[in-house]
Amino acid sequence: MRVVVQKYGGSSVADTEKIKKVAARVVETRKRGLAVVVVVSAMGKTTDQLLARAREISPSPSRRELDMLLSCGERTSMALLSMAVSELGYQAISLTGSQSGILTNDRHSGARIIEVRPFRVQDELEAGRIVIVAGFQGVSYKREVTTLGRGGSDTTAVALAGALGAEYCEICSDVDGVYTADPRVVDSAELLKSISHEAMLELAAHGAKVLHAECIEFARKSQVALYARATFGDAAGGTRIDRPEEVGELDVAGVAGTKQLVRLRASGERSMDRMLAAAAEASLPVLHLDADHEIADLWFSLSDVPDWASVREQLLDQVQVEEGCGAVSVAGDFFGRNAAKLAKTRSVAAGVGVRLKAMATSPLRATLFCAEEDVDTLTQALHRAFRE
Amino acid sequence: MRVVVQKYGGSSVADTEKIKKVAARVVETRKRGLAVVVVVSAMGKTTDQLLARAREISPSPSRRELDMLLSCGERTSMALLSMAVSELGYQAISLTGSQSGILTNDRHSGARIIEVRPFRVQDELEAGRIVIVAGFQGVSYKREVTTLGRGGSDTTAVALAGALGAEYCEICSDVDGVYTADPRVVDSAELLKSISHEAMLELAAHGAKVLHAECIEFARKSQVALYARATFGDAAGGTRIDRPEEVGELDVAGVAGTKQLVRLRASGERSMDRMLAAAAEASLPVLHLDADHEIADLWFSLSDVPDWASVREQLLDQVQVEEGCGAVSVAGDFFGRNAAKLAKTRSVAAGVGVRLKAMATSPLRATLFCAEEDVDTLTQALHRAFRE
After folding, report:
1. Tell me: the pLDDT tens digits for A349-359?
2. According to the model, what pLDDT value does residue B198 have?
3. Which chain A residue has its CA at the smallest distance from B88's CA?
4. Which residues does chain B have within 8 Å of residue A57's beta carbon, measured at their own beta carbons?
5. Which residues neighbour B117 within 8 Å (Cβ) at sequence distance 6 or greater?
6. Alpha carbon separation from A174 to A98, A147, A158 (Å, rounded)
7. Chain A contact probe: residue of B60, B80, B98 with most A CBs at under 10 A
8. How many CB pairs under 8 A join A and B?
9. Which of A65, A78, A87 sits opposite B94 (nearest CB)?
10. Does domain A3-174 have CATH number 3.40.1160.10?
11. What is residue B340's predicted lDDT score, i.e. its pLDDT?
């Protein structure tokens, strides 16, 4: 049985008309003789609307209750999509994260997939059905509903693709692939035909929104080939994300900017320890940490912290909190190890009058931290300097 | 531990402001030293909106997928209510039908509760928490999500009250209790202070919308005292539904009308058998059956058959289908055994020019079947004749 996994984002299933079109696309794939597993997100802005309602009730709702609330979004869209596929004369069944065997840890509102036991999915595929799976959700060993944090549906899709030994996994959205920079910020950004898992991981972790970092990490580990494609566009287009030996490494794959970062700062060894303990207590996903004997800075993204209001209260006793930060990253083949290129990033920043708060590198990436309002300017300047 | 169960209907949790008010009412009860279990419906018209979306996609969606879809409504409201109770400084936890141990048969979109195993609910109550349970839903022995059909949240509440040995169960809605007839149809309808389980069961089964028949049946079997009350009204008002020895039997408790009935008719023994087999196949809940050697009539309500379009197709081969029917019932102490009263109902109908299609009785009730458009006229006339 040749299996493919397709994931459809919220804008692709925003209303019943679009759901019908997605059903047709799914059936097209089935007609090519493939067993199809579909992972869906919540319809349109459903998740944001549910979050807004929660905030009308409580500035920092319990994460467990948030998960219970948010998991409804995907359940709604998967049931509707399953009905739409049936209307086209193909057998379909929708399965929750729990029914699909998506097992997670118990970190509510940001759980990690620990294991996938897709026995029910396999049974249904063998019975000839198209299987529609709720993205973004799983079940903890305590049998509680968990959600995976932003971009979690991508992760569901890739994790399932790995567990099922799928031929490939398609991530379908309203964006037609991975660009060298956000086209809304950089006019001359170009669509990439292909990119390695590793470079994509760097871009995704640092602001490229088309794919989520954790999803790429799963794809890299299980060696699943990914396609980022437009749902209602060229079925053979988009960007292929695969092993470097398949797609090669690009000198500079792209530039990604991210806003809404927060810097926590602690001075002195003991307060550094307290800062890390507090961050662990609040389950803050660390974007970057740098420390010397005097000062430790911990950076994270507000988009990873749904209950920031209450977390902030806890932290203020222990550390300095600086909101309104941002960062721009450049990713490419050994970019972060090339001192000449790193020097050039600094002069580019200076050239457009952007004051850097900090800098950090990995072998494939350099990240420049700045004020939130400088992110777009710096993105444009770095793209001009390295990609044009 | 003294336990009470409160159920809040859709209009009571229609928006976040109302959810906050319900949370305050729940906390008021908790402050009186009672352990509180809350059963919630979906917010406002959520269920109808979800159904409308399903119908945009398919005229007769699979019942399993409908259940997956509709169960989201209650999950949303319970998570929000749990957050709102927490905001007031009380510990709360929301539990799905499955987590609450609501076990049902596997008749999707109209499942019956077979057993309640409220171990988790009890644990949470003992830990001092207010437990918020999703109404209208359960889990089948196949571990599939099921829904209970219209009014199912009332049934959830009463079944839990029975299993927990609750002192009483409150059904809170935008209606302040049980009336002698629908006040929108009969101006002079009066609020009943109390009514027996048995008489209420007859009214509910035949159109009184304030409480659902299955919920009363559960209350009758487990001898749970029920109160039908307005959520935002007099906390000690409303109607008490209890054992006849507690509340007495009324000569005429009330008049209830129901529309959207369908009559199936078969002529000849073999076609009667085929009709019943087809009805069983389609899981039609029979409202009334009468048969002689020549003709069998089977009545049911469209509100019990979410996939009527496809069921209708199957039936048309076998039987005559008459849509657009209705019925008016009068319930009271041995009303259905009193020939004089039965005769009076017929003369009342004739007096207002309503042609009866059929008549049926039980010890506590008489039901007059008529055309849908005659239901209101007949309700008013019977209320005038028997209650005023």
Report:
1. 999 999 999 88
2. 87
3. A58
4. 16, 19-20, 80, 83-84, 87
5. B101, B103, B163
6. 28, 23, 19
7. B80
8. 99
9. A65
10. yes
11. 80
- Strongest mean pLDDT among A111-120, A197-206, A297-306: A111-120
**Mutate which of A22, A58, A91 to test chain B, going by most B C-beta atoms within 10 A?**
A58
Percent above pLDDT 70 for chain B: 100
Asked whether the beta carbons of residue A72 and residue B72 sit closer than 8 angstroms, the reply is yes
- Minimal Cα–Cα distance from B276 to chain A, Å? 28
A92 vs B270, which has greater pLDDT?
A92
pLDDT tens for each residue of A225-279:
999 999 998 888 999 999 888 888 788 889 999 999 999 998 887 788 888 888 8
Give the nearest chain A residue to B73 (CA atoms).
Answer: A72
The predicted model gives B303-315 an average pLDDT of 84
Q: Looking at domain A254-387, what is its CATH homologous superfamily?
A: VC0802-like (3.30.2130.10)
Contacts of B83 in chain A (CB under 8 A): 54, 57-58, 61-62, 65-66
- The alpha-helical segments, DSSP class H, found in chain B are 16-31, 46-57, 63-87, 119-126, 152-164, 197-205, 213-222, 244-247, 269-281, 308-316, 339-351, 375-387
Q: Which chain A positions have a beta carbon within 8 Å of B87's beta carbon?
A: 57-58
Q: Where are the domains of chain A?
A: 3-174, 254-387
Q: What tokens does B275 get?
A: 């009709």
Residue from the list B68, B80, B86 with its beta carbon closest to the beta carbon of A94: B68
CB of B194 closer than 8 Å to CB of B32: no
Find out if CATH 3.40.1160.10 is the number for domain B3-247: yes
The pTM (predicted TM-score) of the whole model is 0.77
